């Protein structure tokens, strides 16, 4: 259904050109749910916006193709894209809650959307509103509420209902629950998962929280510094991730880590500056296992198992890495290394 091939995206800024996404490729099948995971700034939202051709003025696709049902969306007219966005690929974002119009009831807004983009009548449109509200677990009477009468969680569910109402082929959900409290988040995620099973809509679910992906996605992409570090079936990935960055992310999110009784271990340091073209692996500065090879040569994404790829030179040493990554000292050593590099020698 969707085939992203060698997608690269740049932002032009006062300080120069920033390569936000570099040579990203993936497929999405009908009915499939794909998670894109990575820390803030690694290019997730940029990918989402590029798929929908919603990049800001200073952003541009500098290479690659986005095939939707075999048709390349890169280079399509704004009009064509507007139609696709409304009825074929829907975006649900963190800030979507604020896009509800305060002057109209949510039911009105969803119904008008349906009427504008399909040829069904008022009656059927209303029935569809009731149906999608049911799917996201909102009572029918809430259709006549104004946005300010709804809690954050309800508003976000109304937005998801709105996306579902046009029966898109793909829903792109960009951190849809990040602004909500953990309990509400969990409930909405369970809903999304149930809907996912119920209908054949495909989904791209973007989040910085790797444990969320384990709950709702069949496949996962781990991004770092604008590149794909690891790509796999979720079952295979969560049983045994291969990339050191993935190992670090697992430690940072509690529900799937097995560091028992210990507090979370975050990955020391910060993501790379994408303004500077750098040789080698993007993660090498923060990687506990980096060697001189990692600093000079960029590792390609290679197959490590069926439906499982990783971009690391040392996938053959992963058993050792997994053991060491569970040890807090491994990451503390990275912290010390980074601090020493930052302190100028006296
Ligand atoms: N409009 C913009 N202009 C310049 N740089 C941007 C713009 N939007 C995002 N970026 C940069 O692009 C990179 C990727 O950002 P983004 O896609 O938002 O990451 P994520 O969604 O993973 O947090 C970051 O370095 C970010 O600072
Ligand atoms: Mg983002």
Task: Please explain how this structure is put together.
The protein has 346 residues and is α/β, with parallel strands linked by helices. Among the domains are: 95-167, no CATH class; 240-342, no CATH class. Helix content is 36%, strand content 23%. It has twelve helices and twelve strands. The protein has helices spanning 44-51, 78-87, 106-117, 122-135, 152-165, 182-198, 210-216, 234-239, 244-252, 292-296, 318-325, 328-342, and strands spanning 2-13, 16-28, 33-37, 59-68, 71-72, 89-93, 170-174, 202-207, 219-224, 227-233, 302-305, 308-310. The strands form two sheets. Strands 6-7-8-3-9-10-12-11 form an eight-stranded mixed sheet, sandwiched between helices. The protein has a four-stranded antiparallel sheet with strand order 2-1-4-5, covered by helices on one side. A hairpin with a 2-residue loop joins strand 1 (2-13) and strand 2. Helix 3 (106-117) packs across helix 4, helix 3 runs parallel beside helix 5 and helix 9 (244-252) packs parallel to helix 11. The longest helix has 17 residues, at 182-198. The model has no long low-confidence stretch (mean pLDDT 90). Magnesium ion binds at residues 44-45, 175.
């Amino acid at each position: 259904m969707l085939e992203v091939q060698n997608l690269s995206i740049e932002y032009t800024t006062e300080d120069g050109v920033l390569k936000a996404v570099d040579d990203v490729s993936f497929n999405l099948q009908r009915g499939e749910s794909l998670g894109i995971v990575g820390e803030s700034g690694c290019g997730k939202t940029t990918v989402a916006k590029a798929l929908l051709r919603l990049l800001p003025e200073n952003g541009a696709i500098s290479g690659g193709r986005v095939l939707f049902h075999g048709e390349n969306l890169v280079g399509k007219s704004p009009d064509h894209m507007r139609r696709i966005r409304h009825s074929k690929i829907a975006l649900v974002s963190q800030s979507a809650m604020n896009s509800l119009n305060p002057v109209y009831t949510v039911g009105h807004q969803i119904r008008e959307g349906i009427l504008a983009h399909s040829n069904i009548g008022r009656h059927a449109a209303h029935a569809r509103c009731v149906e999608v509200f049911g799917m996201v677990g909102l009572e029918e009477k809430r259709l006549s509420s104004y946005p300010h009468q709804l809690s954050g969680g309800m508003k976000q569910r109304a937005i998801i209902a709105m996306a579902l109402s046009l029966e898109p082929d793909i829903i792109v959900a960009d951190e849809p629950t990040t602004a909500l409290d953990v309990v509400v988040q969990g409930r909405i995620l369970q809903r999304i998962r149930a809907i996912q099973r119920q209908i054949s809509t495909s989904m791209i679910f973007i989040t910085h929280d790797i444990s969320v992906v384990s709950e709702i996605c069949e496949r996962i992409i781990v991004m770092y510094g604008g590149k794909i570090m690891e790509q796999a079936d979720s079952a295979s990935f969560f049983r045994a991730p291969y990339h050191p960055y993935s190992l670090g992310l697992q430690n940072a999110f509690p529900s799937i880590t097995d560091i028992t009784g210990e507090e979370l271990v975050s990955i020391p340091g910060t993501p790379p500056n994408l303004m500077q073209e750098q040789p080698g692996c993007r993660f090498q500065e923060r990687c506990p296992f980096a060697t001189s090879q990692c600093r000079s040569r960029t590792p390609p994404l290679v197959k490590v198992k069926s439906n499982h790829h990783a971009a690391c030179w040392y996938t053959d040493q992963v058993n050792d890495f997994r053991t060491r990554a569970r040890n807090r000292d491994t990451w503390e050593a990275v912290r010390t290394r980074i601090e020493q590099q930052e302190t100028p020698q006296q």
